[in-house]
Specification:
- 83% of the residues lie in helices and 0% in strands.
- Helix 2 runs antiparallel to helix 5.
- It is mostly helical.
Amino acid sequence: MMSQVVTGYTDIIIAVMLLLFMILIAIIFDGIGVAVTSCDEDKLKKVLHCDKKRAKIAIGLVRNAEKVNNICADVIGDMCGVLCGACGATIAGGLIDGIEGAAAPFIMIAISATIAGLTVGGKACMKRLAVKNAEEYIILTAKAISLFTRSGGKRKKKKDRKEK
């Protein structure tokens, strides 16, 4: 009996986890967009004077603040918002399946309002933190990016490699 209940809601549970992940991604990337526009490059250089790789990434983010903000806040944030709406519709559809009467529209409204509240509230809190702690936010972002980049700096051309 219990396994039927759990398997019946598995798709909804996965959809809720995916929804929360997308809301979190939207909040984090919106914070990055705000942090790069409010970060002071001189303060950033002082903090990162000994870590050249991360300093290079962080300064690159700040110097390209307009592009980074556009990609992080507008592109990624908007895409996550659209996907959150679709995910919310899936969750609402799964929950109201089998419910008849006047309760169904209220469930859909409640789910939409919850998604909007989490997204808007989360972004508002993160923006506040990103403005107050812009340098730390950018350093953390640079650390995350450095995990996915080469440590050797610029790539050598094939011709240079053959000569050595």
